[in-house]
Hints:
The chain is built from 6 helices and 3 strands, in the order ααβααββαα. The protein has 164 residues and is mainly alpha-helical. It has one domain (9-144): Winged helix-like DNA-binding domain superfamily/Winged helix DNA-binding domain (Arc Repressor Mutant, subunit A). β2 and β3 (86-94) form a beta hairpin. The protein is globular, with a radius of gyration of 18 Å. It comes from Microbispora amethystogenes. This is HTH marR-type domain-containing protein.
Amino acid sequence: xxxxxxxxxxxxxxxxxxxxxxxxxxxxERRLSFTTLSVLHTLAGGGPKRLTDLAAGEQVxxxxxxxxxxxxxxxxxxxxxxxxxxxxxxxxxxxxxxxxIVEGRRNERTARLADLAARLAxxxxxxxxxALPALARMVELHRTGEGVAGADPxxxxxxxxxxx
Length: 164
């Protein structure tokens, strides 16, 4: 069996940071702030959320998320509805217009990444394909808090299944 390359976590971190910055900026349509896009992606991927859960998941203050949701609501991208399990609370959900932004950005990213991938050598494309299950597993480990010494499972309130 051939020797497998040793994983450099520092190199992985650096490459993922660079890739994430590129990935976030790929779509050229409708420029929105990172936090705004994150809120839309969170709601589109994880369903309606209470403001407190949304604030915790997005790592912003209650005041900041309230202002953002108010702005997004005025733009028709989210809406507030009463929480059926607690009449005092509201749930924020993405509207069809907000979901269309998320889907449009995903489609544009897919097309642009397909173009970049087409420029790679076959071996490079195969290496990326081979890495996908391990990267997906890392996301799952983070999501559930498995294997993280002394860590509580992270809140799924922000549920970044679909990052901006």
